């Protein structure tokens, strides 16, 4: 069960922010972020302990899985590229590796079920649910057993990081065809039109975009009587990486740690997690607004405001990785910035 955040310290937290040497609200979204982080880090405490507020062992997980719908030509790349990119992650050559090294994330790659399995490596976790999901326009993407196992696998992999001391967990992904899955999930959850939910993914042309939309419409019609719950939507339209992200996000929320959500695919997982356990959204920080068409609608559905707008659409957790300095800055000003009284500065009062 995901507990709601304890709000007993909220007034004290906000007062501390407001009394810093700045005009009220002058640090904008950083103030909102600071309040959320301090609230999460202070769970179970009856008084505010500044010395205990710290980001520890920030952990980035990139979940990889292949999608049967990719065989229908909905992407510019074949499914084999997923496994090749997993190998690139493991070898340290991708954008997410660069950002993790620069910023201090501890990176783990999770093979949730790729067509081309990767060789074992210290930073690779094998949690395979199969080689590839079924093409969801003709049958469920996965079985009920795979759904259950995927949720459990997701929990297991993040709990190992939390038990090692991580209190900020970020989510990225890799999977050819997974924008189709995420768009179908968005349409099923929101009731919005396929045209609004489905974008160009990795950069498909107009003809491929029309095919992608037609296949997702077919999938929604085929499964229309079996999309009543988030679990049903996940089983029928999801991916092996998406189901494990959902299980992992729910586990982080149950542990009352911070969830950093990346872009379109990760936000699809966040939507599902928040439908399964509504309080889980209180633990989520949305890193950036993706250029993928449906992401803005996802954020609206979640009533979420992303920290960054960088016109990115790479995935891999890259947007989530770039949010870490903002978390550090938010927590830093909360803990270290002087108050008007401390600095003997006349308090600024808005007119």
From TrEMBL:
Drop me one GO molecular function for this one: nicotinate-nucleotide-dimethylbenzimidazole phosphoribosyltransferase activity
The record's Gene Ontology biological-process terms are: cobalamin biosynthetic process
**InterPro entries tied to this protein:** Nict_dMeBzImd_PRibTrfase, Nict_dMeBzImd_PRibTrfase_bact, Nict_dMeBzImd_PRibTrfase_N, Nict_dMeBzImd_PRibTrfase_sf
- Provide the alphabetized UniProt keywords: Cobalamin biosynthesis, Glycosyltransferase, Transferase
Give the E.C. number(s).
2.4.2.21
Annotated catalytic residues: 316 (proton acceptor)
Q: In which pathway does it act?
A: Nucleoside biosynthesis; alpha-ribazole biosynthesis; alpha-ribazole from 5,6-dimethylbenzimidazole: step 1/2
Q: Give a yes or no for keyword Glycosyltransferase in this entry.
A: yes
Q: What domain of life is recorded for the organism?
A: Bacteria
- Report which reactions are catalysed by this protein: 5,6-dimethylbenzimidazole + nicotinate beta-D-ribonucleotide = alpha-ribazole 5'-phosphate + nicotinate + H(+)
* UniProt xrefs under Pfam families: DBI_PRT
> Looking at its record, which EC class is this enzyme?
transferase
Record family assignment: Belongs to the CobT family.
Q: What does this protein do?
A: Catalyzes the synthesis of alpha-ribazole-5'-phosphate from nicotinate mononucleotide (NAMN) and 5,6-dimethylbenzimidazole (DMB).
- Report the PANTHER family cross-referenced here: NICOTINATE-NUCLEOTIDE--DIMETHYLBENZIMIDAZOLE PHOSPHORIBOSYLTRANSFERASE
NCBIfam families assigned: cobT_DBIPRT, PRK00105.1
Q: What is this protein called?
A: Nicotinate-nucleotide--dimethylbenzimidazole phosphoribosyltransferase
Q: What species does this protein belong to?
A: Pseudoalteromonas maricaloris
Name of the gene? cobT
């Amino acid at each position: 069960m995901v507990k709601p955040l304890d709000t007993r310290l909220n007034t004290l937290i906000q007062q501390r922010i407001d009394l810093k040497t700045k005009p009220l609200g002058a640090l904008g979204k950083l103030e909102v972020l600071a309040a959320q982080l301090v609230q999460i880090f202070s769970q179970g405490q009856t008084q505010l302990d500044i010395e205990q507020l710290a980001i520890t062992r920030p952990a980035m997980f990139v979940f990889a899985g292949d999608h049967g719908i990719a065989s229908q030509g909905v992407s510019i790349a074949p499914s084999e590229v997923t496994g090749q990119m997993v190998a690139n992650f493991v070898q340290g050559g991708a954008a997410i590796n660069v950002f993790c090294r620069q910023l201090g994330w501890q990176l783990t790659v999770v093979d949730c079920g790729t067509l081309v399995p990767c060789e074992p490596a210290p930073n690779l976790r094998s949690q395979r649910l199969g080689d590839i999901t079924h093409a969801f326009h003709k049958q469920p993407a996965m079985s009920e057993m795979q759904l259950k196992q995927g949720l459990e696998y997701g929990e297991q992999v993040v709990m190992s990081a939390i038990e090692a001391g991580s209190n900020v967990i970020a989510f990225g992904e890799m999977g050819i065809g997974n924008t189709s899955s995420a768009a179908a999930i968005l349409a099923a959850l929101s009731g919005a039109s396929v045209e609004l939910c489905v974008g160009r993914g990795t950069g498909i042309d107009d003809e491929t975009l029309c095919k992608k939309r037609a296949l997702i419409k077919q999938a929604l019609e085929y499964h229309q009587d079996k999309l009543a719950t988030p679990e049903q939507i996940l089983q029928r339209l999801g991916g092996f990486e998406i189901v494990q992200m959902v299980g992992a996000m729910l586990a982080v929320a149950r542990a009352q740690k911070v969830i950093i959500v990346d872009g379109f695919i990760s936000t699809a997982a966040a939507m599902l997690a928040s439908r399964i356990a509504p309080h889980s959204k209180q633990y989520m920080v949305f890193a950036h607004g993706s250029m993928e068409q449906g992401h803005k609608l996802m954020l609206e559905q979640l009533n979420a405001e992303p920290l960054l707008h960088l016109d990115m659409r790479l995935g891999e957790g890259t947007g989530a990785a770039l949010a870490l300095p903002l978390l550090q800055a938010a927590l830093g000003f909360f803990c270290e910035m002087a108050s008007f009284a401390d600095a003997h500065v006349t308090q600024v009062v808005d007119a």
